[in-house]
């Protein structure tokens, strides 16, 4: 997903009639066609200019991307203008009829109804209130540290407050990154840059390239980067059969507590961000991200000295990492993880995603990502609307015999541990040799 971008490439508005069989033959990076609203587009040469990322767009090569397009592009004027230049032709009547399922008709009708009711309209006071509470947490943390510089208890309190601020800033940057706060893409991305770069010290471009792919093909092997945790962690039989693990895989449910949640935002994301910014030569993003660390150092360095200020930073990140990793993992890692089955938008969401219990605290604690199904179906919807649409999404699923799974936080944590334990038990160490041999042959 993305928004506006450059123009060029493609078929230039042809009148060709394309069958499902012909479409399936154009499913590579070099030769990629996609379908949007029964129109066929050649995105092969243009994909590199796609604002939402080349990989995200090409995940749909040879497939129908209609609902993904509508979900990722709340403003469609510029994307539609570009698409006109990439048009190959039209899907034939048989293929178009096969794609027009009762489930998708009902889903699209629901989406249109929610738009008419104003449930896609953001309440900016909600989001800027969220920003205010993030900034307040940071100010209170600094005030506590300044007031009691020799107190270990104050050190701990300051670290906890900073961790809460970082997690809540993370949920807020997610809102801006999904274009869910302002009418224009430019305004959303400007605020996204501020929240993720200056308030969190992470790359906006890195987040978008990862997160768009996660939403485009959730829990799909080779597409969703959020499940690429091998060789340390494998989730489900499909991963156990196709990914190279390691000798201690059967104990992954044990070392998860040491190498999983504690290290994600503490070390892994820091390493990935530095590497990404260096490879992409994103010097402006790098400079703004550094401003977070400068601000942190100027605030806490004079109070604690550099050694204890660094210790406070990693203490804060350790709390944030546990919080963030558990919340995001509980929604997906115990659900279906498998190769691309080319499911429709709704079905793929339901098999790969579950909700967590609602309520005021959990809404705050998870940044409303306890309504993960609603978020994946309507990623550009402001999150304060998720509780309001939940029952209607649930009714849609029930009508079409889809089970919308809702778990408590504790149940969802248990599901992850059960999955880790079960996957580790069935993993065959010979798989690593087979995968390595297959990769070498492919090269």
Provide a descriptive summary of the structure in words.
The protein is mostly helical. The chain is 61% helix and 5% strand. The chain is built from 20 helices and 7 strands. It has helices at residues 20-24, 54-58, 66-72, 77-84, 93-99, 102-116, 124-147, 152-177, 185-198, 204-216, 237-242, 252-259, 264-280, 283-330, 345-352, 360-366, 372-377, 386-399, 409-426, 430-442, and strands spanning 16-18, 33-36, 39-42, 63-64, 87-91, 355-356, 406-407. Strands 1-5-3-2-4 form a 5-stranded mixed sheet. A two-stranded parallel sheet has the order 6-7. A hairpin with a 2-residue loop joins strand 2 (33-36) and strand 3 (39-42). Helix 8 packs across helix 14. The longest helix has 48 residues, at 283-330. The two termini are 30 Å apart. 42% of the residues are buried. The model is unreliable at 1-11 (pLDDT under 50).
């Amino acid at each position: 997903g993305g928004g506006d971008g450059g123009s060029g490439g493609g078929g230039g508005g042809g009148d060709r009639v394309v069958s499902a069989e012909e479409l399936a033959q154009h499913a590579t990076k070099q030769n990629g066609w996609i379908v949007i609203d029964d129109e066929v587009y050649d995105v092969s040469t243009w994909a590199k200019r796609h604002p939402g990322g080349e990989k995200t767009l090409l995940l749909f090569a040879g497939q129908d991307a209609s609902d993904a397009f509508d979900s990722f592009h709340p403003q469609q004027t510029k994307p539609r203008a570009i698409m006109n230049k990439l048009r190959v032709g039209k899907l034939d009547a048989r293929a178009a009829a096969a794609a027009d399922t009762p489930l998708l008709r009902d889903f699209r009708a629901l989406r249109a109804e929610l738009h008419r009711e104003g449930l896609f309209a953001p309440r900016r006071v909600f989001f800027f209130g969220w920003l205010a509470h993030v900034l307040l947490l940071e100010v209170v943390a600094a005030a506590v540290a300044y007031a009691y510089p020799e107190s270990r208890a104050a050190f701990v309190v300051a670290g906890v407050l900073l961790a809460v601020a970082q997690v809540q800033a993370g949920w807020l940057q997610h809102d801006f990154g999904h274009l869910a706060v302002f009418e224009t893409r430019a305004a959303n991305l400007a605020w996204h840059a501020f929240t993720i770069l200056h308030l969190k010290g992470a790359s906006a471009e890195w987040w978008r390239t990862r997160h768009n792919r996660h939403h485009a093909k959730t829990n799909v092997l080779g597409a969703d980067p959020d499940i690429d945790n091998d060789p340390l962690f494998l989730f489900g039989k499909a991963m156990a059969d196709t990914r190279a693990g390691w000798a201690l895989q059967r104990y992954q449910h044990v070392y998860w507590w040491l190498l999983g949640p504690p290290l994600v935002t503490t070390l892994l994301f820091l390493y990935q961000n530095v590497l990404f910014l260096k490879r992409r030569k994103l010097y402006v993003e790098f400079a703004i991200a550094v401003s977070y660390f400068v601000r942190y150092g100027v605030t806490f360095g004079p109070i604690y000295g550099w050694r204890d200020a660094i210790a406070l930073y990693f203490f804060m990140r350790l709390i944030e990492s546990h919080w963030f990793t558990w919340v995001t993992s509980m929604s997906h890692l115990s659900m279906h993880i498998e190769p691309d089955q080319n499911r429709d938008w709704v079905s793929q969401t339901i098999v790969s995603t579950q909700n967590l219990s609602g309520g005021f605290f959990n809404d705050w604690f998870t940044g409303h990502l306890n309504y993960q199904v609603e978020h994946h179906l309507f990623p550009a919807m402001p999150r304060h609307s998720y509780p309001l649409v939940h029952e209607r999404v649930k009714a849609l699923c029930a009508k079409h015999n889809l089970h919308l799974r809702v778990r408590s936080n504790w149940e969802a944590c248990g599901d992850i541990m059960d999955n880790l334990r079960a996957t580790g038990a069935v993993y065959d160490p010979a798989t690593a040799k087979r995968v390595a041999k297959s990769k070498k042959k492919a090269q």
